[in-house]
Amino acid sequence: MKNKTIKSILLVAGICTNILAGTNAYCLIDTNKSKPPLIPVTKDFKLKNGLRVIFSEDHTVPVAAMVIVYDVGARNEEKGHSGFAHLFEHMMFEGSENVGKTEYFKYIESAGGSLNASTHPDFTNYFEKLPSNQIELALWLESDRMRSLKITEENFQNQLETVKEEKRLRIDNQPYGPASIKLDELIFDNWTNGHPVIGDFADLEASTVKDVKKFFNTYYAPNNAVMAIVGDFNSNDMQKLVEKYFSTVPSAPTAAKPIVSEPKQTKEKYLKLSDQHAKAPAFWVAWKAPARRDPDYYALGIIEKLLSAGDSSRLYQRLVKGDKNALKVDAGYDERRGPSAFEIFAVVKPDSTPEKVRASLFNEIEKLKTEPVLQEELDKAKNQISRELFASDSYESLQKSIGRAELLAEYALFFGNPALLDKDIEKYMAVKPEDIQRVARSVFGRKGSTIVDVYPEAKKEQKQELPKKPNNS
Fold first, then answer.
1. What residue ranges of the chain have pLDDT lower than 50?
2. pLDDT of amino acid 22
3. What tens digit of pLDDT does each residue of 388-431 get?
4. pLDDT score at 430
5. CA gap 225, 138 in Å, rounded
6. pLDDT at res. 17
């Protein structure tokens, strides 16, 4: 063969992406308007207690994944009671009526499965992946703790100490960690959006078991959750099992929706902090940003890739390789169901200054507003978004049952329709150069920016004691 180039083709819902890095991708366009959904939904039903359940059968391999997403996150907390959502990520593993403390891990891992949970500003999820003939075990465990979690003084105090240790390890003792908390508090004017997921320890320590039980009874109810199961099972049989374990779990009064509205920022915010763990100066520049699935959401997601995805990205090429005034630069879109944030973080080289780095950074931001992005660069950013959805090493990969279950549950809970994922892919692919310019002008205003400068804490000089005068007597 004269042409030894490896050709990689992926046709999923009319989207082509290069799977093999470094190869040429050739695109097939699906002209059939009735394309199959990315994640076929086999069943979508609701129990009498309000629990919505979604099934997606996939008999490729003998595994199944289950995800439960609760409509509770940091934004559902009240002032004086912060940190409860994250606390329950830990409390949910402390045992229930029929399951002892730490036995949750024992049961799942002994059956060849894996599990985890995570807390976010606007939701909390719990998930298990098991051999498909063991998925009933996950149903039993999840239903037991939804129905009868053990909330005792001992468990509360035990997990409070665990959360404290987690904060010390992951935030307090990490370079730039405490400053990242201050950043969110400064970006958002509404406490509901700006306080940290991990919470305030003074709030948790001042709380009682009664407060903790009230939070659980309000939010950890079937009518405040969506369950998704994906994998190798029969939907009719699985529905009977779900009804067996969950139908008798009592519902709760509908929880009040948090007020998350934010005023428009009309002047620059600035904060300067010292950090005892930092070795070099660094800073954040951040802006309030559109909510998840807002019309401008898709263009902003592509802007994130243009600025910061890999060594070929604009900020890396300009700040690290070109001007050589930064050691590191990253951009991130903290997307939520409500007001969100777009953040850029840079570590400054010792021979430069934050002001010089920011000048380069803002220059690149201005280019997004004034110069149309080349189609080749735009296509690259779109391929990077596709890769996150389809590559096997991505957590939310649609090649993985756990990733598919997570997205089905999220889209059903957040937006009422899991099929909207297909629409989102189409909207990403439809973004044009003029959309990039319009959204950049709308989001990245200087008066709407928030800047946090972080400097290494100056070490105190210790006085050197003179040697004592020798005693010659």
1. 1-32, 472-473
2. 34
3. 888 767 667 888 899 999 999 999 999 999 999 889 999 999 99
4. 96
5. 16
6. 38
Per-residue HEC secondary structure of the chain comes to CCCCCCEECCCECCECCCCCCCCEECCCCCCCCCCCCCCCCCEEEECCCCCEEEEEECCCCCEEEEEEEECCCHHHCCCCCCCHHHHHHHHCCCCECCCCCCHHHHHHHHCCCEEEEEECCCCEEEEEEEEHHHHHHHHHHHHHHHHHECCCHHHHHHHHHHHHHHHHHHHHCCCCHHHHHHHHHHHCCCHHHHCCCCCCHHHHHCCCHHHHHHHHHHHCCHHHEEEEEEECCCHHHHHHHHHHHHCCCCCCCCCCCCCCCCCCCCCCEEEEEEECCCCCCEEEEEEEECCCCCCCHHHHHHHHHHHHCCCCCHHHHHHHHHCCCEEEEEEEEECCCCCEEEEEEEEECCCCCHHHHHHHHHHHHHHHHHCCCCHHHHHHHHHHHHHHHHCCCCCCCCCCHHHHHHHHHHHHHHHCCCCHHHHHHHHHHCCCHHHHHHHHHHHCCCCCEEEEEEEECCCCCCCCCCCCCCCCC
- Give the contacts of 2 (CB within 8 A, at least 6 positions apart): none
Q: What is the pLDDT at residue 399?
A: 86
What is the per-residue pLDDT for 466?
Answer: 53
The tokens describing 394, both together, are: 């991505």
Q: Which two tokens stand for residue 99?
A: 């399951």
Residue 298 one-letter amino acid:
Y
Torsion of CA 229, 234, 240, 245, to 10 degrees: -40
The encoded tokens of residue 207 equal 């709380």
Q: Residue 337: name the closest of 416, 403, 274, 408 by CA.
A: 416
Extract the tokens encoding 158.
């035990």
Q: State residue 18's pLDDT score.
A: 37
Give me the pLDDT at residue 30, please.
44
pLDDT at 458: 78
Strands 24-25, 7-8: parallel, antiparallel or unpaired by DSSP? Answer: parallel
pLDDT score recorded for residue 102: 84
| Amino acid symbol at 242 | V
